[in-house]
Design brief:
binds zinc ion, YlxR, single chain, 122 residues, YlxR-like_sf, globular, alpha+beta
């Protein structure tokens, strides 16, 4: 005999831990649709840089961002990364930018190739 007691729904503790706030637009979203960004020390440049962490593996404090140029712009303008990551100097976000642009191209571009050299002649 299997007793199925479903009178107590578990809706009370629904995914409370997966929601994160985007540092760009400040809206909450599931962390699976946000990009994690951490601050890492760059030896060559001798400064902290914002580093994309799409696999959410890097240790330390993370900032969450929609991987879109719009949210990145907002975050950069407000220096939200530095604030979220608790660093004093503004962070170099070029790596995050590159990652976001790559994501965008993967979504939008599809199979399209940039054709700088016109292969179609005539
Ligand atoms: Zn956002």
């Amino acid at each position: 005999m299997v007793q199925t007691d479903r009178t107590q729904d578990v809706r009370v503790r629904r995914s409370h831990s997966t929601a994160r706030t985007c540092v760009g637009c400040r809206s909450r979203d599931d962390r699976s649709s946000l990009l994690r960004v951490v601050a890492v020390w760059n030896e060559q440049e001798h400064q902290l840089v914002a580093h994309p962490d799409p696999r959410r593996r890097l240790p330390g404090r993370g900032a969450w961002l929609h991987p879109t140029p719009e949210c990145l712009e907002l975050a950069v303008r407000r220096r939200a990364f530095a604030r979220a990551l608790r660093v004093k100097a503004p962070l170099d976000t070029s790596r995050v930018r590159a990652h976001v642009l790559e994501e965008q191209q993967a979504v939008v571009g599809g199979s399209q190739e940039p054709s700088e050299h016109a292969t179609e002649s005539g």
